[in-house]
Amino acid sequence: MAKMGTSSRVAAAIVVVLGFVLSLAVVCNGGKTSSFVRKVEKTVDMPLDSDVFKVPPGYNAPQQVHITQGDQLGKAVIVSWVTVEEPGSNTVLYWSAYSKKQKSEGKFTTYKFYNYTSGYIHHTTIRNLKFNTKYYYVVGIGHTERQFWFITPPKVGPDVPYTFGLIGDLGQSFDSNKTLTHYELNPQKGQAVLFVGDLSYADNYPNHDNVRWDTWGRFTERSVAYQPWIWTAGNHEIDFAPELGETKPFKPYTHRYHVPYKASGSTAPFWYSIKRASAYIIVLSSYSAYGKYTPQYKWLEQELPKVNRSETPWLIVLMHSPWYNSYNYHYMEGETMRVMYEPWFVKYKVDVVFAGHVHAYERSERISNVAYNIVNGICIPVKDQSAPVYITIGDGGNLEGLATNMTEPQPAYSAYREASFGHATFDIKNRTHAYYGWHRNQDGYAVTADSMWFFNRYYHPVDDSTSAQ
Ligand SMILES: [Fe+2]
């Protein structure tokens, strides 16, 4: 190496100092861009003969068992499963320690997708359950009965603690399996999952190979048979394939995953709401019409004034395509919906919005961008204590891999961002406080790589931002 002269040493020192000042400026401008270094291997799907996809033994054994909330209050559960050889029984047998065995009857459906024919997809709603009670349930008959259990949520009320898990864009890769395992072993113990869309990624296979919907159902059963997952539709649920003669959007998804949309006055399963414990959860569809006069718009317009914060202080919105996203992926895809609905979110003081789609993690400050009126030039998001925090949690681990390119510098609204696979939990303590934590797959189960104490926007609307004040 050639020796440096004094002047070049001074120049180098200036460059170093300048670089330091500049990087400080970046840190102060936006929040934190994590420097965590993760593995760079490709994300690959688990092969079809993986143990997580194993078909349960026995003739016509129920498989792909999954549950979700079945009404608006949490006193009903939709139990779904698939039988392959023949329709079999639609009955769910269920009981608790305090009640005798009861039966509930449902229905089954089937569908065809190009050259694929589904199994018999059963959906049975169990109603009039008691709150906060462990129920056992059995599906199947004879030698192929399979037993599971779930715990109903506590009665809806303002100070009821409850822990939600958050998973998005899961898929069925080796990384997906790690994400699910980390969620299951997280000592924070999620009681229900808020799933922000993109389930199986079957549409990435030739002819949208729907066998991958079946394998995904078997893979996730170990969690979703025991606790409800609240579903949001993502773009990988659309399965619109005119080249295959498949022109009805959402066909596999709507046959396989039922949601209680009618209970909240919705006219389609893509947007709906539920109450659970102290939370009011609104699910929106990035892939259904949302402009003025559309069914989703009219529903949301009537829905938001119905939220009674003295009953459910926590107002949570789920959608697939994020409104605020500083990665170089899916840029502005959520923008038109933001323009339509953001003033409502500020007016009704939504606490937090969870989205997926971008395969990475990001948490925003409380910001809004509603002031722009063409001539005033006010088109940069500003801090707004009535606005939600926006969290992108599309990092479940699907085969498309991570979104690693970010816009630079980090925008001021972005509090933390990192391209790692993981999941999160939203742990409501009471009407004023909730502890939020994001867990990356490489860490120990108890570690939170990003966390925040949420202050409720209705009962405790003080600044809860995590950046330097
Ligand atoms: Fe997506």
UniProtKB/TrEMBL annotation:
Pfam families associated with the record? Metallophos, Metallophos_C, Pur_ac_phosph_N
Keyword Hydrolase part of the UniProt annotation: yes
Q: Where is the Purple acid phosphatase N-terminal domain?
A: 62-150
Class of this enzyme: hydrolase
Q: Which residues form the Calcineurin-like phosphoesterase domain?
A: 163-361
Q: What is its EC number?
A: 3.1.3.2
Provide the family line.
Belongs to the metallophosphoesterase superfamily. Purple acid phosphatase family.
What protein am I looking at? Answer: Purple acid phosphatase
Organism, as annotated: Prunus armeniaca
